[in-house]
Amino acid sequence: xxxxxxxxxxxxxxxxxxxxxxxxxxxxxxxxxxxxxxxxxxxxxxxxxxxxxxxxxxxxxxxxxxxxxxxxxxxxxxxxxxxxxxxxxxxxxxxxxxxxxxxxxxxxxxxxxxxxxxxxxxxxxxxxxxxxxxxxxxxxxxxxxxxxxxxxxxxxxxxxxxxxxxxxxxxxxxxxxxxxxxxxxxxxxxxxxxxxxxxxxxxxxxxxxxxxxxxxxxxxxxxxxxxxxxxxxxxxxxxxxxxxxxxxxxxxxxxxxxxxxxxxxxxxxxxxxxxxxxxxxxxxxxxxxxxxxxxxxxxxxxxxxxxxxxxx
Length: 312
Ligand SMILES: *[C@@H]1O[C@H](CO)[C@@H](O)[C@H](O)[C@H]1NC(C)=O
Ligand SMILES: [Ca+2]
Ligand SMILES: [Ca+2]
Ligand SMILES: [Ca+2]
Known about the structure:
Elements: H1 2-23, E1 34-40, E2 47-49, E3 67-73, E4 79-85, E5 90-95, E6 106-115, E7 131-138, E8 146-147, E9 152-157, E10 166-167, E11 170-171, H2 177-180, E12 182-187, E13 194-196, E14 201-204, E15 215-224, E16 234-241, E17 247-249, E18 270-272, H3 283-297, H4 299-302
The chain binds 2-acetamido-2-deoxy-beta-D-glucopyranose and calcium ion (CA) (3 copies).
One calcium ion (CA) is lined by residues 41, 101-102, 139-140, 142, 174-175, 179.
Subcellular location: Endoplasmic reticulum membrane; Golgi apparatus membrane; Postsynaptic cell membrane
Protein name: Calsyntenin 2
Organism: Sander lucioperca (Pike-perch)
């Protein structure tokens, strides 16, 4: 009898164990429905809000009430989720590689928690519902402003005040407005008659004189809104043009002794036409202007105007 009883009780016990094994993992883990994450580029830890924690009502039963994994759906997402503590269900989201804000600013993917199943090996494991994770990549100020042109050149007419002689522009490759917008331009030379505003417009602060200086060479630098300065300043050349005063330059008076033969008239004289490149086109103007000049400024020569004078 005792052997039979023992066998029966053994069988009962076995069936009870089998029964309890197949029903022990009753609940799937639970997580929030959505998470918002922030990661700073070039680091690997994602700060999640709310924190990643999976709960399982089977706890504290081993395996069935423990969290074994967080799975990410979305292969292109360079993130992984690791279980920090299977008992508490705490997890952490990390970048698998370097996250570059300049390449991609945001990521969205799905995360799911898995419990450890009914025993070793994870059979009969249950999955939580799918939660959406939205991650924003924070910028680091890695790039300095760079000017669009290697140098700038402009011309002004003497005696005038300009609101803007020219505009320089620098750009910056960072991904956020704070670190990519240009907040400030500055002329690095001291004592120049020029000023620059926040938009890169260069103006003159006083009237310029062609006689005093015909060319100004200044250097301009730029800062992004994170206070990072351009590595190289840019040269800006400003030509000063004379105001248009056409007339004879270089000869005011020639003395001539009657009877001493021919003499070169005003050897250094030249016509200022304002348009320097077109001086050669106007030889007839030269002659006519010469007559006018001679008549108005040198009546001494005016009588002899048509008597074989030469001019070099
Ligand atoms: C895991 O979490 C449980 C429950 O919160 C805690 O008792 C245990 O100390 C934690 N283990 C580690 C290694 O932190
Ligand atoms: Ca469970
Ligand atoms: Ca920058
Ligand atoms: Ca950056």
